[in-house]
# Entry
Amino acid sequence: MGSKSNRSRRHTEELKRDAVALVRSSGKNVTEVAREIGVSAERLRNWVKQDTIDRGQGAPGELTTAEREELRRLRRRHPRWGYLTPPETRQRLEQEHALVA
# Structure
């Protein structure tokens, strides 16, 4: 297992974006790219998966990065919402957005 500093290290959005682009354009697999840039293959796989979702190509019910950020914001504002499943959360987000709009 890695040290605590490795687990808590944050990566810039630029690094994530560039790493995902490299996986998509280089013909190399995730493990090879991850090794080259010094991140775990699992972390890079997660970035690629989230990018796929953000492009609208994810499975139904998967939350985009923007939706996840909104969910975090709402859960801070409404702590009891923490128990909601993603479809229920999506409905709450849509309801709140309709009230604000």
Observations:
- Residues 86-100 form the longest helix (15 residues).
